[in-house]
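This part of the workshop introduces the protein records we will be handling. An example says more than a description, so a record of this kind follows.
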Amino acid sequence: MGLALMISMLRAALLATWLVLKPVLGWFFIVIGLIGMPMPIVNGLIFLLIGLALVGPRNRLIRWSRVHLKLFLKGWAAHPFPLVGGAGRLAQRSAQQISRQHRRLRWWWLERKTRSKRPVAEQPRDMARSM
């Protein structure tokens, strides 16, 4: 009984430590990624993506940044100078395409998770054969 209690207390302490450490590590990686973006030696994009994954899309600052990036791209695309406006429209279409692909990937992943949780008897016949 004592060993099980110690293991559960250790697990709870590690979980509490991770919940505090996760955003700190995420912001650390984001800062390293932003510093490394213009540098030729350090690939800042990798650190930036790791940091964003650790902090998560539900963070207020990240949501605010995403909204204001979209507003900036919308204003850039509406610029009256043809060269600047054209580049803004290209950037806006690229951002929309990335968002669309991310959404499709997320739907695919959620569908895959729900499909793997269902018993084989409930799955459609073509899915049961492919497994």
